[in-house]
């Protein structure tokens, strides 16, 4: 695990020390550090609350961090603009600790970024696939353990898939499955949102994050398969109905290998 990242985490916890400003979400030798920083930014005399999730991989700072942005006061397009702008800035800071510098830069450029009409172009040095790979269609199959606030949870999933231009299915029945299709980057963005935003409630009715989601499968969609045209919610009452849905999506092998073994 990167000693540089560990030192940077220590500095960030000292700077963002107020309630809810900093939260370490995960730390491991394989994934590095995942943490959330919450900051208040001003735009035209209006104060906006922004949540940024950073993942610093073990190779950091010699590679870019993964960044996810969320705010109840901004549109998803504005959040994506912020993410892309930060990644572009980060590409100029490779090999040195950059998170705090990125946050300072964001404070200075926040108004200009959030009023831009289009997402700025950016490139990520060191990514093996390049732009072409980002545009290829990927598929992910997720298993959700339970939904207590089913209506709210479902609406949140539909909102995220729409904003990230993902297609697929939400299967509701004995098993709760989410099938996602879209670019690899957007699926990764979805997974970060699913893990870090409070989407459900616990047994006492208190808002909580999704801690029991499992990624059953994630890979590039074979060239012979077509991407599903839309994201739809499908209720099913039997496993035969669920199997039929996978067959219609031309993903029967996926059902047989990963879903059939769960029941």
TrEMBL record:
Entry's localization field: Cytoplasm; Nucleus
Annotated ranges, domain RWD: 7-113
Family matches, as SMART domains: RWD (SM00591)
InterPro entries named among the record's database cross-references: RWD_dom, RWDD3, UBQ-conjugating_enzyme/RWD
One GO term describing the cellular component: nucleus
Superkingdom per UniProt: Eukaryota
GO biological process: cellular response to stress; positive regulation of hypoxia-inducible factor-1alpha signaling pathway; positive regulation of protein sumoylation; regulation of gene expression
UniProtKB keywords: Cytoplasm, Nucleus
Function: Enhancer of SUMO conjugation. Increases SUMO conjugation to proteins by promoting the: binding of E1 and E2 enzymes, thioester linkage between SUMO and ube2i/ubc9 and transfer of SUMO to specific target proteins which include hif1a, pias, nfkbia, nr3c1 and top1. Has no effect on ubiquitination.
UniProt protein name: RWD domain-containing protein 3
Organism: Lepisosteus oculatus
């Amino acid at each position: 695990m990167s000693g540089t990242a560990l030192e940077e985490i220590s500095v960030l916890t000292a700077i963002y020390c107020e309630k809810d400003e900093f939260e370490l979400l995960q730390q491991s030798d394989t994934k590095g550090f995942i943490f959330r920083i919450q900051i208040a930014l001003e735009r035209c005399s209006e104060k906006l609350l922004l949540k940024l999730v950073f993942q610093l991989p073990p190779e950091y700072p010699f590679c870019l961090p993964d960044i996810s942005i969320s705010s109840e006061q901004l549109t998803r397009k504005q959040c994506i603009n912020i993410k892309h702008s930060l990644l572009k800035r980060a590409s100029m800071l490779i090999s040195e600790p950059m998170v705090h510098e990125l946050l300072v830069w964001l404070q200075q450029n926040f108004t200009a970024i959030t009023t831009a009409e289009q997402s700025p172009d950016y490139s990520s040095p060191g990514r093996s696939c390049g732009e072409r790979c980002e545009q290829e269609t990927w598929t992910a199959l997720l298993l959700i353990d339970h939904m207590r606030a089913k209506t709210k949870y479902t609406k949140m999933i539909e909102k995220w898939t729409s904003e990230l231009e993902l297609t697929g299915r939400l299967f509701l029945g004995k098993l709760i499955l989410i099938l996602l299709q879209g670019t690899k980057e957007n699926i990764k963005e979805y997974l970060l949102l699913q893990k870090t935003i409070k989407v459900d409630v616990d047994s006492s009715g208190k808002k909580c994050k999704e801690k029991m989601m499992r990624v059953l499968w994630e890979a590039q969609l074979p060239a012979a398969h077509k991407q599903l045209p839309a994201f739809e919610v499908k209720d099913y009452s039997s496993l035969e109905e669920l199997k039929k849905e996978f067959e219609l999506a031309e993903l029967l092998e996926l059902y047989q290998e990963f879903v059939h073994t769960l029941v």
